[in-house]
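Form 7-S
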Amino acid sequence: MFKSLKGIFNSNNKDLRKRIYFTLLVLAIFGLGTNIIVPGAKQITQNLSFLDLLNLMSGGSLKTFSIFALGVMPYITASILTQLLQMDILPYFKELKDQGATGRQKINRINRYLGILFAFVQGYIYSVAFMGGTTVEIIKTTIILTAGTALLLWLADQITNKGLGNGVSLFIMAGIVNTLPSTFITAFKDLVVADSFTKVLGIILFVSFIIAYLLILIGVVYMQISERRIPIQHSTRTDSSFSKEQSYIPLKLNSASVMPVIFASAITSVPSLIGGLINKPAFTNFVDNYIVYTSFTGYILYIVLIFLFGYVYTLMELNPKEMSENLDKNRSYIPGITPGEKTAAYLKGTISRLTVVGSIFLIIIASIPLLFSKISSLSSAVTLGGTGLLIVVGVALETYKQLESSIVSRSYQGSRKRRHRR
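Output:
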C-alpha cells in the first residue's frame, strides 16, 4: 500500500496526480452542493426511519433537503431494474447484454434516462410528503431535486472518464464519509460533555465506542476481501506448466456487496411513502407498527428480504451455467469435475454456500445499528457500523485497486521504454 502511495508522487505519474486532483475537486463540489438548501425548504424535523439509508448515502442531504437530496439513488434504482430485465424478462435487454461493450453503452444510456425519470417521480413524492405547499411550489421543488440528480450523474461521468474510480460509487461513499465527523462529535457530546455520566465513565464509554467501530471496520474489510478460489486447469497446458502457474476462479464471500440491503430498504420503504401520500392515520400506524424495520415484524421481514435478495442477486451476477460454458469455450475445466452440467452444478453449490455465509454477514452488519439504537441512550444521529461502513469499505478497496493497477501499469510502461532506449 505504501509503495503505491509513494508511486503517486513519482515524476512519471503526473497524469495520475491530475486525475486524483480532478476527483477531489468534483467531490468538493458535491460536498458544497449538499449544503445548498432548496429555496423555500426547511430541514426535515420528523424521523426519517425508513429513509435513513438514503439520507446516509446522500450525505444527510435528504434531512436538510438540499439540492442533492435525492443523490444518485434514482440511477441506482434504474440500474437494478435494467439488470433484472436482462434475465430473459425482456428479450431486448437480453440482446443488449449479449452485444458486449456496445450493448453496455446502450444500457448505460437507458439507465441515465430512467434515472432522471425516477428522480422526478421520487422528488415529487418527497416534496408532497415532507414539504407540502401549493402545486406550483411542489413542481418547482421537484424540478430542482431532479436537476440536482442530473448534475450529479454528469459529474459522476466526469470522474469516471477524467478522474479516478467510479463516479457514482464515490458520490455514495463521499456522502457517507461526510456524516462520520458529526457522528463522532455527537457521540462525544452525549457521552463526555453531557451530564449523563461522570467524566471518567463518559471518556471510557467514548473510547469503547471508537474501539467497537474500528473492530467492526476490520471485520468488514476482512469479509470484503475474503474469497473462495476454485482451481482450474487448461487443456492446452501440460502438467508441469499447471504446477508452476495455478489458475483459479475467485468467488467473493460477499459477491452481492450492499445491493441486497438496498433492495430490502427500498421495498420496506414503499408502504411508508404511500402512507405519506394518502395521509391516512390508520394505514400509517399499521405501517409504523408492522412494516417499518424498526418494529419487530418489520425487522423479521427486513432480514428475510436481505437473505433472499442476497441469494438471487449473487446467482444473477455469477451465473453457474454461463461460467461453465465459458470454461468450455476456453478449453478449461475444474480438476475432478466433469465439464458441462456437473461443473455448473458444482459451481452453483459452491456459490450457494458462500451466499448463505455472505447473506448472514450482511444481516449482522445491517442489524448492528438497529440493535445499537435499542440498547443505547445516544441520539439517533449516532450509529455503530452498519450498511454505510460496508459501502465505504467496498468503494475504497475498488478505488485503491484501480489506483494500484494504474501505478503498476505506468511503471511497466516506463521500464519498457528505458529498455528500448538501451
